[in-house]
Amino acid sequence: MKSTMPIIETASPILLRKPIYQGSSARPHTRHLFAILAALLAFSGCDRKTETAGGTKNQLTIALLPKSKGNQFFLTVEKGARQAADEIGAKLLFDGPTDNDPAKQNEIIENWISLGVDAIAAASQNKGGISLPLKKARAKGVTVVTYDSDANDEARSFFINQATPKSIGETLMDSAAKLCGEEGEFAIITGTLTAGNLNTWRGFIEARLAEKYPRMKLVATKPCDDDKGKAQQEAANLISAYPSLKCIMAITSPAVPGAAEAVKQAGKAGMVKVLGLGLPSENRAYVKEGVTQAVILWNLCDLGYLTVKAAAAVKNGTLKPGATTFDAGRLGNLKVEGDNILLGAPIIFTSENIDQYQF
Amino acid sequence: MNDKNCPPNSRQRVAGVLRRMLSRQESVVFVVLIFEILLFSAIGRNFLAPDNVRNIVRHSVEIGLLALVMTPIILTGGIDLSVGSMMGLCAVAFGMLWGEAHFAPWLAACAAVAIGTAGGAINAGLITRLGLPPLIVTLGTFSLFRGLAEALTGGSKSFTDFPDSFLSLGNSLAFGVPVQAWVLVVVSLFVWGLVHRTTAGRAFRAIGFAPEGARYAGIPVGKRIAFAYTLAGAVAGLAAVIFVSRVGEARANAGTGYELAAITAVVLGGTSIFGGTGSVYGTLLGVASVAVLSNGLSRILSISDISRELSGMLTGALLLVALAGGALTKALAERPHRSKPADPVNSESAGRKEK
């Protein structure tokens, strides 16, 4: 075999005169390596036409990104989203990180961009971080909307808001005050400290607290990474650290059953009230047992339905910036405030009405 | 046949070359990589589109860097389980220095690499001075570094909103190629030179084959091993900075699982886990195979929703199949050729006779 590798003259004692190969005398096929590298670099450097991901002609492909794939909240949103996709004849892609990792959200979005989807609807785990790939998507002509948890303004056309943050915050605070008799200590369990929606709601909760309930005190705010197990642990810690705690407010859906379980295991059902933003299905048992007093949410199927309808409408040009209403199919005419599309008012589920809702 | 008086004819020379080629794990992985590329360009959507190739490169740079510096370590017969956690710690340090101490991004990046180097030095010190097994030491630092990162951020804080100039490191192009790809090229050349063109590289292999023998041969075993682990720490810091720039967020969970992905790539590429044999070329092939596999699966529209779960499964299967295939072809290639057993002296000279 011809020697094409240069022999390095020793400038310093540590360099070898001649390369040493272990085992057989075959040399590494560095030529192949350079060929592959060069090919990859060349491909990434040149511009070629990309196909879009549309199945049949004119079929839209809409990609839905949850905060995490195993979260029942988002699985319910997906159901509504699929209804809307079937209605308008679009293809729906649904993928998200299995754990709570914003970096994976970014990777999934980047994969979708190169797959050639028409629209992306994202619930962001990290407001700043997710705006990077979303902006890239917009630059490539992909329609971007956000739902549940917003990204930066320039990264999306519209934000599908389930209810105004103000009404969410106020409903939560008012319900907690009612349960505690408008006095006493309470604590909040949130998801992560970076999710935009949770931080906004906390701001309104605290504003309402200061405005209307001077005899109540917020003693702690703990994140649980949107994980039920961690929420249970945080709740247990709160119960033992604050013996006179009257209420735990869990503002992310995995935390509501987690907190309820902690209260139940500590034997404090009814003494420490539990309420939060959760799904009827995940909390039904606790509500019936009286561990959880109130669960507040909105119709998640409708949220998914609205998200897909809005994304398709923006892509088709029927929903333009500056619109004040949006015709959302079976949901009727919905209000559009600026770039927020509002689903409606929150619903409070208690032991009386929780059986009416099956999600 | 292979006899000093009868030089092999051209057919035997080709057969000899083929046999030597096939007996190498690198060739098996090379074939696998080509197969993957052909498969996904046929059945995947937009697989060869420049956008997608850039994504493949971008998403694999951090693991590629870790796999490159894992190679000298595994060549010495050791292992470093802490590089992923080191990434997390350096990412958090970077975030804190930039976000709370208001360092300029490049200065915070240098500090992050310095912290990585210090972490690598801790590993190196414990392994060489106290003679503790690398697996145990790095298992300990795996928990230590990650725990430290989580303690510093209270398990939940993260730093974001970096300036665009910093984010361009992870997200923009230089000469049509993702910026971090050039970093990978530079580090690849450095590690390749280190492993295949210096006496230090030869020392790594000697230490992997027989540490005591290496010591008696006059190789400064402690110094070489220490260098390998310290280098790994430094490059983990670099990978952390690139990761933060790519995702726009500095968090304690950066690099979770990356150490295992790096080890998979290195072993897939033909480096023996016991040390002594291996090549940087093989490691790069290993990284490429795994990256192409996981991206290619996401290009298949019908399974794109579960592509990441599938890719985890298939990467494991790929590793097992490639290792089994490599062992099989090696056994076949080393079978005695016809009547005469393989003669190492003569077959070498037969190979070298070609011009």
List keywords for this structure.
heterodimer, A: 359 residues, alpha/beta, Rossmann fold, 8-stranded mixed sheet, 6-stranded mixed sheet, 19% strand, globular, disordered N terminus, B: 355 residues, mainly alpha, ABC transporter involved in vitamin B12 uptake, BtuC, two-stranded antiparallel ribbon, disordered C terminus
Largest sheet data of chain A: 8 strands, mixed
Count of DSSP E strands of chain B?
4
Strand order of the largest sheet of chain A: 2-1-3-4-5-13-12-11
Approximate strand percentage of chain A: 15-25%
CATH superfamily of the largest domain in chain A: Response regulator
* Count of helical stretches of chain B: 15
Instruction: List the secondary-structure elements of chain A in sequence, H or E.
Output: HEHEHEHEEHEHEHEHEHEHEEEE
The beta-strand count of chain A equals 14
Q: What is the CATH C-level name of the largest domain in chain A?
A: Alpha Beta
Query: Could you list the spans of chain B in which at least 5 consecutive residues all have pLDDT below 50?
Result: 347-355
Please bin the fraction of helical residues of chain B.
Answer: over 70%
CATH architecture identity of chain B: Orthogonal Bundle
CATH class of chain B: Mainly Alpha
**Which of globular, elongated, flat, extended, rod-shaped describes the shape of chain A?**
globular
**Major sheet characteristics of chain B:** 2 strands, antiparallel
Oligomeric form: heterodimer
